[in-house]
Design a protein that fits this description.
It is a single chain. It contains ten helices and 14 strands. The longest helix has 16 residues. The protein has two domains: about 220 residues, Rossmann fold (3-Layer(aba) Sandwich); about 60 residues, Alpha-Beta Plaits. Helix 5 links the parallel strand 7 and strand 8. The strands form three sheets. A six-stranded mixed beta sheet has the order 6-7-8-3-9-10, with helices on both faces. It starts with a strand and ends in a 6-residue tail after the last helix. It is α/β, with parallel strands linked by helices.
């Protein structure tokens, strides 16, 4: 288990991470979210031992993370960190040897991953000759070459088309199924909802929202109602607690302040003879995120 306990980090007088705690269990994909400058990268660097916390501690299976355990960790950074004049094979040999792998282990694993990601003939190509998407594949391969017990993924889907996003997603799910601990950060909230059972949302280094994603969505007071059919939408707009009405091509989305408003909306909708849909939904993670941090992820 990865345990992050009350860690803080300062740059001069600036507090980049403020008393942050969470745990990640084997087989779990954990979401660490926040806008740029929220403290995610600093947190990642403290987890892998590149930065020392001012307070608190990080442990993996009860031990401080140092060079004795870094061979079991993978880190996919948001920034491209490949040596573009090297071939794919040379790049992977470099990373694999740093992780304590033998040349045979590296070559066997590289062949397996290149085939899995649809580029089996790229082993001897130079990194600079590859497209942005294929460079991202190689960067991902270098991060998982050693079958890490702990994998940190910072914006792993950057530069990928939908098909290759699916390949990455399936590999992450497979790793989790085999017991890896994965910390996942992305601006695509729909990916977080598909992957992560637990999340932490950072704002200015502080934990402003954390816990089980299902519990967070269930406890969040605001809900959405989807209605399909002819309905007096102007009357619905006047109901106290109706926050917004969005007109879509074939339905209406009604945003309400809390569950109690549902009955008021239904009372009006029930008077219409041809309603084919009335569904109350939990809000999306994106809506909750914006509400908590006051801005969208990309800002």
């Amino acid at each position: 288990m990865l345990k992050v306990e009350n860690i803080s980090k300062y740059y001069g007088d600036f507090c980049a991470v403020d008393n942050l705690s969470f745990t990640v269990s084997p087989g779990e994909i954990f979401g660490l979210l926040g806008v740029n400058g929220a403290g995610k990268t600093t947190t990642f660097r403290m987890i892998i031992g590149l930065l020392e916390p001012a307070h608190g501690k990080v442990t993996l299976d009860g031990k401080k993370i140092d060079y004795s355990v870094t061979d079991t960790i993978g880190f996919l950074t948001e920034e491209r960190s490949l040596l573009t004049k090297l071939t794919v094979k040379e790049q992977c040999h470099y990373y694999g040897i740093l992780k304590g792998m033998t040349v045979k282990e590296i070559d066997d694993r590289l062949d397996e991953l290149l085939t899995k990601f649809g580029i089996p003939n790229y082993k001897n190509k130079k990194i600079k000759e590859l497209s942005k998407g294929n460079q991202q594949k190689i960067q991902f391969i270098t991060a998982i070459l050693n079958k890490p017990r702990l994998l940190i993924c910072d914006e792993p889907f950057s530069g990928l088309d939908p098909f290759n996003v699916e390949l990455f997603k399936e590999e992450l799910k497979s790793m989790a199924k085999n017991g890896s601990m994965i910390i996942f950060s992305t601006h695509r909230m729909e990916h977080v909802e598909l992957f992560c059972k637990k999340i932490v949302v950072l704002k200015e280094g502080k934990d402003v929202l954390s816990g089980d994603l299902k519990d967070i969505k269930r406890k969040y007071r605001k809900k959405n109602i989807l209605i399909k059919g002819d309905v007096d939408i102007e009357k619905i707009k006047k109901i106290e607690g109706v926050l917004e009405v969005i007109t879509k091509p074939d339905e209406y989305e009604i945003k309400i302040a809390d569950e109690s408003v549902k009955d008021k909306v239904f009372k009006i909708v029930s008077k219409s003879p041809n309603i084919s849909k009335f569904v109350v939904e939990e809000p999306s993670l994106n809506e909750i995120f914006i509400d908590k941090v006051g801005e969208t992820y990309e800002n």
